[in-house]
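S.,

Sequence below, as promised.
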Amino acid sequence: MSFWGAGRTFPAGADIREFDQPTREPHLIAVVDYLDTVEKPVVAAIHGTALGGGLELTLSCHFRVASPDARMGTPEVNLGIFPGAAGTQRLPRVAGLDHALELIVTGKPVGATTAKEYGIVDAIIEGDLRAGAVAFAKQVVTEGRPLRISSEPRNGIGAPEDHAEVIAKYRDLANRRMRGQDSPHQAMDSVIDGLTMSYPEAVAADRKRF
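The prediction came back faster than expected:
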């Protein structure tokens, strides 16, 4: 099965006007965690922009394909917040800590080619994106590829000291370019939680911090 955004873009993120309102069910975290339980391949077909919650939704899919002009990222720090639907946990597990912190701390989106280099996108589809996504899903089944669940490994992804150089690089970047802003550091703290905590524990801590 494939996820496809009707219209000109994949879901581009949350409506910030809802942030000060009571949470509506189902929360996006419930949706992304539910997709972990789906036994058939789920492929995100990304066109336009997949930003913030839109990118977090794609990360919960087993595979991601994109049109050549697609852009994706986590711009939340520009609003004084950080990814709030497990993006701080899933993105490092998909793209690695360095690339994840680049997107989360700077808030700058990347294009489809860079996203493929980072491991966020599995394939770039020329032409009809929906048809290409369906063909990709059929190929996954034919080849018997294992489903890639982005909340795994569920017991953490390493010790902070193993990533000390990368963490220091982005702490320094945040201090230099975003002086006085707390959100990049809070985002990094959530990412670092995921190094040692189990996925459910890190997501709970993440929500409290958010």
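The two ends are 32 Å apart (CA to CA).

Coffee later?
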